[in-house]
Amino acid sequence: MARYDKRYSVKRISIIAFLFVAMLIIACSFLISCSLKLQKNMLEASSVSYELRILIDRTSSQANLLFNPENISQLSDRILFNVRDDLVKTTGKISENNEQLRKLLLSGQGLWVMVTPSLDRQQVSVEMDKVDKTWARFQARVDDISNYNLITLRAGNKYWQPVDALIATNGPLFNSITKLNQLIYEASLLQNTRLRMLYAAVLALVLAGIWAVWFLTLRPLARRLKASYLEIMDKNQHLDYQANHDSLTGLSNRTCFNTKVHHIENRVSAVDACCLVLVDLDDFKMINDSLGHDAGDAMLKKVARDLRRLQLHGEQAYRLGGDEFALLIDEPTTREDLTARLDRLLSYVREPLTFQGMQIHCYCSIGVAWGGEHGARTLTALFKAADNALYRVKQSGRNNYCFYTDIRDDDILGVNTADESQLSASRYIQ
């Protein structure tokens, strides 16, 4: 139940974290899209306001042509009409640009509030109102000029009005357009700065979202996966140990022995470099029958400890089953070293075991076979040779060891005819 709750908790946290990141990405995408649209509007507004200034300069020049007596006397009738028509067209373009500029500034007003200070917005609004009022006055004047005939145009200086000064260089309309252009340009620069700050904030939020997903979801999941992996590895090691070791003595079992044998057989000339020692306890059945299996198990544990004492290099001890043990030496060794090792092993096994206040004695018979000698080129032949050497020890009185190379056809001993079943339990207990 607790594990189910943990899984549910991880699942719920994962869903919340991913939904949070998804909403964050959507919100950031919306802000960036709107910001890019506002940036486009501001750039277009800056371009339109600059064009307005150029058109105002052109309108001022055209008005000077119409109302300057020196210019009128030198212009033909066709040119006068063309100048008048150009003035009307230019003012029409100014009206269109003025309206376009207002739409550009008002279309992004919501986002504009986010990226421009209130003082700048107020100044732009004031200048826009000035331009609208001033231009409305001059637009009425242009409507009158569009209806002038040739006589009126030729007498233009007599029809000059104060409102014509609105569009003159450094006039009110010219100055308003110039100031408006400057304000829009400054607002565009400020907007670029604010957009960079917005992008930095978006990046920080995305990184924070990724960190939150990692901290709330991936990090706990990684820890659980690591813990599960270590638990599985520990269980596998435990199962592998149980499969390859004897539960009573802790020695490697027959399965492990067979695996080692196959490994040696697959190596080139490996059999020639190894040595097999078979160990069989003498009259072990009498200990089990006389003293019980607990005493027999205690004796098997003692023998297992004896087999592990002062081992040779490359030596591995196995319990093949019952009271049968084996030593497999997978490294080259000399007969002198092996003889000393076997003498020590016999003395270790002869040492009595104290069990429930009693001293139990046990002895063993040992058969030894060398790889590569007398045709023992395979592990099967080696095992058979060691078994024959062990059988010779059993025939010759037990409690000793024999090398297969020492067996001769002319010195085969007779089988000991002593009736083992008649031996008293006092032989094993002191």
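That was protein one. Protein two is written in the same sequence-then-structure order:
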Amino acid sequence: MSVYDFCGYLESRRQQLSLPKSRLAKQARISRSALYRILAGDVFEPDSNTIIKLAKALHVHPCHLIHQLLKNRPIQTGMAIKTRYKHDGIALVDDTKTPNNVLLATGSIHTKIWEFQNIGHVTWQRRRLACIDQPATHTANNGLAPLERYVRFPVVHPGEVIEISVTFRVPNTPGTFVSYWKMVDAEGRFCFPDHSPLECQIQAIDLQAHTG
């Protein structure tokens, strides 16, 4: 039954993170008794709020937990999002370690971190995160310039969570700047053509002008 796949995944992820059950309950802001019932499979269909809180505490995307709960049930779905590879899936888990619209000094170096989860059934191999900005915009004055236009992914199996970081040089002039990125395969083809690109947006400021 799918409920046991769900609670089995929760327990596996809890052990992977070395989280005692009491701490998991506290971080998810649910009672210990409620958590024990979920882990035991006594809750057939946890509510969406509980799933979201558990996902945050376990540092995975809520969609992945929902998939574990529903994967053995026949469900009617709408139009699927186009992917390069059948049964592939990606979710942005977090990008708040380096939030967008951060204030940075002109001419400085900035590293953007994205955290992803493979929520599909395809192992990611030989994939890269590719900058899709126009290269001509990457000058010291006109754009947020990445030190590398491609960042390689490690091998990522279904369900795994990884971090990818990109380092940029902030323009020498003040303003708002943004850079766009998408996942590509070994041949440079978009793995998720219909997905919106990732963004790194910053506010460059002249510290000397602000300090006099």
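Helices lie at 2-16, 21-28, 32-39, 48-58, 62-70, 207-211. Keep this in mind for the problem set.
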